[in-house]
UniProtKB/TrEMBL annotation:
Gene3D superfamilies: Creatinase/methionine aminopeptidase superfamily (3.90.230.10). The lineage of its organism: Bacteria, Bacillati, Actinomycetota, Actinomycetes, Micromonosporales. Residues 17-248 form the Peptidase M24 domain. SUPFAM superfamilies: Creatinase/aminopeptidase (SSF55920). A divalent metal cation 1 binds at D101, D112, E245. GO terms for molecular function: initiator methionyl aminopeptidase activity; metal ion binding; metalloaminopeptidase activity. GO terms for biological process: proteolysis. This is Methionine aminopeptidase.
Length: 282
């Protein structure tokens, strides 16, 4: 395993295949939770589903016990942006917007992904915001793939692509200070990947990099604050938020979206590596 400045962990293709296996476990857990989301379901119910899927696959929840975090998922509803703790008292209601962040460790390697889903009948502007966040994430992934392929890409090209996609879509707040990260034998590694910024800065995008790209946007202000539980981050102005995430890896022949069932081919086409996945579907 090679390393470069900022202590960025560069993976071999064989190690990336192991990360793909972990990513598919996370994808399966998120798929099961998506199917279960409905009015009357609690966030604790969703947490139990995620833990069951992960452990049945031979994995371990990444989040549980991480710096004392007590659950398998982060289940952030409405004005909660990230890191909200599941609870049997938090019952999903018709019209809610929930962001679920989930991670798993398999054979020592991490997968990390997040989705935002509407509960029942949801206001169109909320669904649009979730779609904007998703499109911005894919814009960032595409920038990473093209930057690595050209040999000229820099880390903040991802940040700039995410920001540009959000700004073109409307008036949304891009949450300040939070962003994506490197991932591998630890859930959070160098580098930090902001969701805004000028392009052409930071380390080069090279094969072997594995990154979690995760836009967080709001219907209002980009300002946030942490609640007294020491985990839950909410919008300061009470506006609704959306959070999505995929873990990706850069290889010599393209990108691999490790936590997408199809490896990203449906959105990125030929930018996706031709390597055969360690299990191509969930």
């Amino acid at each position: 395993m090679r390393r470069q400045q900022l202590d960025i962990q560069l993976k071999t293709p064989e190690q990336i295949e192991k990360m793909r296996a972990a990513g598919l476990v996370v994808a399966a857990a998120l798929s099961r939770m998506r199917e279960a989301i409905a009015p009357g379901v609690t966030t604790a119910d969703l947490d139990a589903i995620a833990e069951s899927v992960i452990r049945d696959a031979g994995g371990v929840p990444s989040f549980k016990g991480y710096h004392g975090y007590p659950a398998t998922i982060c289940s952030s509803v409405n004005e909660q942006i990230v890191h909200a703790i599941p609870s049997p008292r938090q019952v999903l209601r018709d019209g809610d917007l929930i962001s679920i962040d989930c991670g798993a460790v398999l054979d020592g390697w991490h997968g990390d992904s997040a989705i935002t889903v509407g509960v029942g009948e949801v206001r169109p502007e909320l669904l649009k915001m979730a779609a904007v966040a998703d499109d911005a994430m894919w814009a960032g992934i595409e920038a990473a793939a093209r930057g690595a392929a050209s040999g000229r890409g820099r880390l903040t090209d991802i940040s700039h692509a995410v920001e540009t996609a959000v700004r073109k879509a409307g008036r949304y707040g891009i949450v300040e200070g939070y962003g994506g990260h490197g991932i591998g034998t630890e859930m959070h590694q160098d580098p930090h990947v902001l969701n805004y910024g000028r392009p052409g800065k930071g380390p080069r995008l090279v094969p072997g990099m594995a990154l979690a790209i995760e836009p967080m946007i709001t219907l209002g202000s980009p300002k946030s604050e942490e609640l007294a539980d020491g985990w839950t981050v909410v919008t300061r102005d009470g506006s609704i938020a959306a959070h999505v995430e995929h873990s990706i890896a850069l290889l010599d022949d393209g990108v691999w979206v490790l936590t997408a069932a199809d490896g990203g081919r449906g959105r990125l086409g030929d930018l996706v590596t031709a390597r055969q996945p360690a299990g191509s579907a969930i």
